[in-house]
Amino acid sequence: MKPNRLHTLFALGALLLGASLGACAAETPSLSPSRCDSGTPHSLRQVDGYRVLLYEPDDQAAPQAWQGPVCIEADTLAKACVLDLSLVKAVEPGPRPGTLRITTFSGSMAYRQDVDPRQCP
After folding, report:
1. CA gap 117, 120 in Å, rounded
2. Average pLDDT over residues 26-55
3. Residue 69 gets which letter from DSSP?
4. Are the C-beta atoms of residues 92 and 83 closer than 8 Å to each other?
5. Other C-beta atoms within 10 Å of 79: how many?
6. What pLDDT digit, counting tens, does each position of 8-32 carry?
7. 95 three-class SS
8. Does the pLDDT of residue 36 top 70, yes or no?
9. What span, in angstroms and rounded, lies between the C-alpha atoms of 92 and 102?
10. Cβ count near 36 (within 10 Å)
């Protein structure tokens, strides 16, 4: 095969690959803009349809606890739910549909709080 033709085939292949990758990127669903403060150091967790922002992680690379507060948002909520909790250890699905269980600690004691973001003050 001639070198010019080979270069043309490589260029065409690269063009087709770029177009297909661009189409994949265009199909990626977008999240609505955050109503929580995204400028403060935080970790983002997706839990049962909620976006949970945990502020002030103890270690940005591999957090084990967060100083707080906690901000919960979802497209179905009228406003973000901000909870003034500190020393947050975990957020997981709650015992009832639509609720979250947030675990905090103080010393060696752990506390679990069930939260319904739809009823947030």
Report:
1. 5
2. 77
3. -
4. no
5. 9
6. 444 444 444 343 333 333 333 334 5
7. coil
8. yes
9. 7
10. 20
C-alpha span between 96 and 116 (Å, rounded): 9
Q: How far apart are CA 73 and CA 57, in angstroms?
A: 19
Measure the CA–CA gap between 17 and 1, rounded to whole angstroms: 22
Query: Quick one: pLDDT at residue 70?
Result: 96
Q: What is the rounded CA–CA span in Å between residue 83 and residue 113? A: 11
Cβ atoms within 10 Å of 42's Cβ, excluding its own:
21
pLDDT of residue 47: 95
> Which residue's structure tokens are 């947050």?
88
What are the respective helix, strand and coil percentages of the chain, to the nearest 5?
Answer: 20, 35, 45
